[in-house]
Amino acid sequence: MNTIRIEPLTAAAFRPYGDVIEKGLAQEITINRGKCVRHHALALADVTGEGARVAINIFAGQPYDLPHKLDLVERHPLGSQAFYPLGGHEWLAIVCEDDDGVPVSPRAFLASPDQGINLNRDQWHGVLTPLHAPCDFLVVDRAGPGDNLEEHLFDTPWTVQK
Amino acid sequence: MNTIRIEPLTAAAFRPYGDVIEKGLAQEITINRGKCVRHHALALADVTGEGARVAINIFAGQPYDLPHKLDLVERHPLGSQAFYPLGGHEWLAIVCEDDDGVPVSPRAFLASPDQGINLNRDQWHGVLTPLHAPCDFLVVDRAGPGDNLEEHLFDTPWTVQK
Hints:
The structure is a homodimer.
Chain A: E1 3-8, H1 11-14, E2 18-21, E3 28-31, E4 36-44, E5 53-61, E6 68-75, E7 81-85, E8 91-99, E9 102-111, E10 116-119, E11 129-130, E12 135-143, E13 150-161
Parallel strand pairs in A: 1-9, 1-13
Antiparallel strand pairs in A: 2-10, 3-4, 5-12, 6-13, 7-10, 7-12, 8-9, 8-11
């Protein structure tokens, strides 16, 4: 019975894993003669290692169906990784706790089209999982030399469902 | 006759001022078992000064009409600033060259809903200028202490038009 029930994405629930990027969750500063509200520093990039830079990328993702079979998670020891959807569709943010190098206690959060996340550095997570339709994401993560990817394959896949 | 004619936004035309963030302009890496294409490092954040961090923000902008009266530009000496539209509308990227501390030769670029920019550090630019409708932008720039804003008011405003 390796089942993960999908939960709504909230800043409070997601706090152990990273930040939610969404209006209303940070300091709001009115700028540009009143024409713009800056939702300030909803997340901070965190990169380390020689030659590390913060890169802005676009990930063009193909959609997944529910129930979703989760057999692989990964983590990036040298940098945080932020995802923000550009396509107007829901998507899944899947994360695990770490138990001495092994990902455990997976959780799946349903993100709205207006919600992004910034995964903490070295946070176990599933790969990008748009639902329903292809979706591009703006991604802010680490560029530079060094081995920044660790993968873990579950012996028994998890079933992610509503 | 202080008129600025709006030009299309292309990576080549914008190169002196920063990078265009758009699919197809950088290395493309297929990841996640073929389910995702990473358009890698379309831009790099560039922040400096003690306590500098790269922040991810949302700017909620009110729209401007054309012709647009441009009387103010600004620059951020301590950090680059990236804008990516979330709302599906066109917007204007306005920049100037620097002549010994004075902004000159303004240009206005019409960006599509699928185009972002990353302004170089210390690059003169107009404030965020969505067209047609309110639009949110994902913004990647500098957070931290220090004076990171310089403004310049033109004696005679410029008229920005198609």
